[in-house]
């Protein structure tokens, strides 16, 4: 184990900055309402896999305006409620894997 000696002033400065970071992290943590986002949106690959449809089908639905979406970087996200409405309307046929 190495022991590092530093001046008291430097240590106190470091400690103060660390406390500020911890305080900031505590104040900016996700609230339960922020975590709700995960339940409202689903990533395209996950959606395609769960519906057993190709990604191209989702792209066609986006292009035709039948399904709105948001992109973050290179990932495409869909509103779960809107996907459910589309399923209920019968515009997407879900097949089961055998």
TrEMBL record:
Instruction: Please identify the protein, giving its name as recorded.
Output: Helix-turn-helix domain-containing protein
Q: Which organism is it from?
A: Parabacteroides johnsonii DSM 18315
């Amino acid at each position: 184990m190495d022991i590092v000696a530093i001046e008291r002033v430097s240590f106190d400065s470091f400690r103060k900055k660390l406390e500020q970071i911890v305080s900031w992290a505590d104040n900016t943590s996700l609230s339960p309402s922020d975590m709700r986002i995960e339940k409202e949106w689903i990533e395209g690959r996950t959606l395609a896999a769960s519906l057993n449809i190709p990604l191209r089908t989702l792209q066609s639905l986006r292009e035709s305006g039948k399904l709105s979406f948001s992109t973050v970087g290179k990932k495409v996200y869909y509103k779960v409620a809107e996907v459910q409405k589309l399923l209920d309307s019968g515009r997407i046929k879900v097949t089961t894997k055998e």
